[in-house]
Amino acid sequence: MQAGIVGLGLMGGSMGLALKELSMFKSIVGYDINALHLQQALNLGLVDEGVDFEEILQCDVIFLAIPLEAMIEVIAKLKGVSKHCMIVDLGGAKQKVLASIPKEMRKNFIAAHPMCGTEFYGPKAALKGLYRNKIVIFSDLENSGEFQRALAKEIFIGIGMQIIKLDSKSHDRHIALISHLPHIISFALANTVLSQEKKEMILALVGGGFRDMSRISKSSPIMWRDVFKHNRDYVLEALEIFENELAKAREMLYKEEYEALEVWMGYANQLQNFV
Amino acid sequence: MQAGIVGLGLMGGSMGLALKELSMFKSIVGYDINALHLQQALNLGLVDEGVDFEEILQCDVIFLAIPLEAMIEVIAKLKGVSKHCMIVDLGGAKQKVLASIPKEMRKNFIAAHPMCGTEFYGPKAALKGLYRNKIVIFSDLENSGEFQRALAKEIFIGIGMQIIKLDSKSHDRHIALISHLPHIISFALANTVLSQEKKEMILALVGGGFRDMSRISKSSPIMWRDVFKHNRDYVLEALEIFENELAKAREMLYKEEYEALEVWMGYANQLQNFV
Asked: How large is the ipTM?
């Protein structure tokens, strides 16, 4: 089989490295709309060969690792792939992408969301082992073809991932809380400090807490613009819950209700039972 | 010289381990109001010996590594230490503690804030090397005695720290943004998810972003209650800036101004030039 990867950044490039370790692919080819990125990906050995988009259509397995709006455009161009072709999208929001898929292509399609990544992006961010021992969420898997479901399981288990199945609506709602909200918070925290006149002096004092809390604020603005666009309603819902929670803390602090604040923080400590 | 540590948790216990590597102390003794913690600290070898509080008064160097309200109580009990005694507080907010110091003891006192730690607490959280290659902020150092200033520099440089001097007002204002705000955000993020009916299912999906953003929500509620109490005004100020920044993002999302949202995130990316 031949695998093709559209988008050779952090996720796509790392997928190239992961697929190379499987014995099932004769070759792994890549396409990137950015010629520099394609060249970088080849130099880094993320894929075996760079190809034109037309050649991607001939692949047995096609991974889409691009921003969500571009994903919808590319899916429209994949019309006419063969019955046994598998198209896997690695995007971070599912409902809109799935709604965009032409009915006749739906069985070809696997909606996969690997719960891993880093704040870096582009081919140079690609990492061997990025997917290993991480979770991947398959959404609305029952709508994928039987052949594609079996192949997807083989590949994702093969690269070391644990599969969780979730309907696309629950995916988007839960992921808004567990991933999209933390990102928007991190961007806001970074901007809070960067907006300060004395930011250089303040940032010279950084300890581990701020470092961890601000790490994902370095993530790709284009990728995240599309995620927030695709999952707007659930992100707004998650933001409202968070803002209310933060307002509770602010009120307790304002009213100097320190015992209540301590109880509120103690409740947060329960997270250690889960994560 | 003999060193005494009051409070044998993460910071005090790690200080014991760090001081043991210096040749300047004949012995390092420890006191903890919690008898179990004292026993654990001894079992873990964090200090050479456990002592009564009265014996701490005889030490040449006294480290205070306890919650800020307890710190003020203990400082009052340290009245009468000798001229060359050095008392170092390791607390995370400075103005109120410094204001509480009796004038006749002010030269004995060094206000030090090591910018390091973990989310864990208690003696079992103590780590060898916690302080190495980290920053320590000395506040209002000019009010400390010449002897104490020289000794503090020797000790903190000796355990591998980089010293930054900052007046206590600037310390509290900057640290509200860079440390206290991230903690209150992390507690609020944890509570946002923990308040969900389907929290188990949601938390099964956790990736690296949420993991990092929620890590410090596991921190000690008692310690943080006191920090927030001591630095209430600046924390409220920092919260207001952050809440406005987050409201900007919410507004853009609500109004579907995705290009503006992308610019806002791109601005946050500038953090990579500093951290």
From this structure: 0.95
